[in-house]
Design goal:
The chain has 98 residues and is of the alpha/beta class. α4 links the parallel β2 and β3.
Length: 98
């Protein structure tokens, strides 16, 4: 719960290492659902986990995009996107600059 509070305050960056079932997804999904949120970069170690998070975002009406889609289409604006999903392999890309 503290991680969600930290994310909602937006006064500083938050980082957490939590066990399975520890609320990591809620830490970025709850703030992303708010109107005032900016784009949050979400890293996942596995494609299947990223796809599951994308499915949940879609079910909850949260606008998202994948790094692959974003990097292949430089004209896409992140203005209205709440979540940008990337897997660790994307970091190796020469296009990966945040």
């Amino acid at each position: 719960m503290e991680m969600v509070k930290c994310s909602l305050k937006k006064t500083y960056n938050c980082i957490a290492i939590l066990p399975t079932g520890g609320g990591k997804s809620a830490a970025f999904e709850v703030p992303a659902a708010s109107e005032q949120s900016k784009t949050t970069l979400v890293f996942s170690p596995y494609i299947s986990l990223s796809q599951d998070m994308q499915r949940r975002a879609q079910e909850n009406g949260i606008k998202y995009i994948t790094w692959k889609t974003y990097s292949d289409n430089p004209n896409i604006s992140l203005k209205d996107v709440k979540l940008l999903f990337a897997i660790y392999d994307n970091i190796k890309s020469s296009q990966f600059k945040v």
